[in-house]
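Appendix C reproduces, verbatim, an entry submitted by the partner laboratory led by Prof. M.T., so that reviewers can inspect both the input and the predicted structure.
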Amino acid sequence: GSTAIPGRRAPVFLANQFALVIRGLMAEALEPYGLTHQQWGVIVAIVREPGTDQRRVAERRNIDVNTASRLIDELEALKLVRRVPSPTDRRANQLLLTRAGARLQKMVQGPSLSAQDRALATLNKREKTLLCDLLTRVVEANRGYAVPGVGRRKPVRKASEHPSSALA
């Protein structure tokens, strides 16, 4: 047939539905702790790489630097994360969990993993591994599209802002 997808199941639709399922389960798990899934992602990034900086968190979480900054500000206001001047780069801050942040991370770890397990509960162990392997392969093969902002419409410039109008 001429269709690229067996049985006409559109990957874009399935991927969006899967993302909604995971986010919904994560929101349910994180809500009692007052965290969003994006805030939790920043905490996880800091746990995996203590002393990391805002730029690395943005890369690791696949979000833009402004979003990372906002999330770090929120976590700092909640007294869960603190910024410490980097000993190697005067322009950067290292990110560390506070005592409260470390306690919360330990409490949320279990419910977070359980939420992800619930999303895949219908699959056996081999199928879970296969699904993650296949998703990883697809993402890795298309890495250039897995960046913040891809797919958004570019802002339309007014004629007065257009570079060629400066020549007129």
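Residues 95 and 158 are 40 Å apart (CA to CA). Additional entries are available on request from the coordinating office.
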